[in-house]
């Protein structure tokens, strides 16, 4: 087999790990299994990442980058504050419906990382990165629309992410299209109300 530079092999292994664990679960994601997914020697995984935890850390970092890109890409330009929150929620929810395995994998990795000291920093970086991006989008939308915030942008972001994680878990474990749409509307309304906006129900665009 032709030699492949580590800089090229690394993203290949990360993708293989994501594909495999999204399909089979984190518990099945041994270095041997990931190597087999890509068709390379197990030693290649250890040479590239050092340990299984090193590979998992790289997977979490990649999933974080992907999620941040989705969050940033969903933010509408020139929309009102309520519309921004609703559009952002709808766009993210679309990824839950279309990529459920990826969201389940991220949740599984989060639970795994909580019990693994070697992954605690990766978990903290993930949460900090997603929170910072969400808070920035909230602050930018408020400034652009002249919406005074009753809470800090970070507090609103943490509330938004906590609620969205809960809705995602419900979707994965107990899907109900009609109930989900009603919950999304109530969720967006709660976020807007927390930010200091109107208290009436805010419509969420259909996915």
The class by helix and strand makeup works out as mainly alpha
Shape: elongated
| Number of separate strands | 0
* CATH H-tier superfamily of the largest domain: Tetracycline Repressor, domain 2
CATH top level assignment of the largest domain: Mainly Alpha
Q: Compute the gyration radius: what is it?
A: 19 Å
Domain count: the total is 2
CATH level-two architecture of the largest domain: Orthogonal Bundle
Sequence of secondary-structure elements: HHHHHHHHH
Distance between the termini: 45 Å
Q: How would you describe what is shown here?
A:
One of its GO terms (molecular function) is DNA-binding transcription factor activity. It is built from 9 helices and no strands. With about 210 residues, it is an all-alpha fold. It has 2 domains: about 1-50, Arc Repressor Mutant, subunit A (Orthogonal Bundle), CATH 1.10.10; about 60-195, Orthogonal Bundle (Tetracycline Repressor, domain 2). Helix 2 (about 30-40) packs across helix 3 (about 40-50), helix 4 (about 50-75) packs parallel to helix 7 (about 120-145) and helix 5 (about 80-100) packs antiparallel against helix 9. The chain is elongated, with a radius of gyration of 19 Å.
């Amino acid at each position: 087999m032709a030699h492949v530079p580590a800089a090229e092999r690394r993203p290949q292994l990360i993708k293989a790990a994501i594909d495999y664990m999204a399909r089979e679960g984190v518990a099945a994601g041994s270095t041997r299994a990931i190597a087999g997914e890509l068709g390379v020697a197990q030693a290649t995984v250890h040479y590239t990442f050092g340990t299984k935890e090193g590979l998992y850390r790289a997977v979490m970092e990649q999933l974080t980058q992907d999620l941040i890109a989705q969050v940033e890409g969903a933010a509408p330009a020139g929309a009102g504050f309520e519309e921004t929150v609703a559009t952002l929620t709808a766009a993210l929810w679309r990824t839950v419906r279309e990529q459920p395995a990826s969201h389940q994998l991220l949740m599984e990795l989060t639970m795994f990382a909580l019990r693994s000291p070697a992954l605690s920093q990766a978990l903290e970086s993930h949460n900090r990165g997603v929170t910072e991006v969400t808070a920035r989008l909230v602050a930018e939308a408020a400034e652009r629309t002249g919406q005074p915030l009753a809470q800090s942008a970070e507090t609103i972001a943490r509330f938004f992410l906590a609620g969205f994680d809960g809705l995602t878990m419900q979707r994965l474990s107990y899907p109900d299209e009609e109930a989900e749409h009603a919950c999304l509307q109530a969720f967006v309304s709660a976020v807007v109300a927390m930010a200091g906006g109107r208290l009436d129900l805010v419509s969420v665009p259909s996915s």
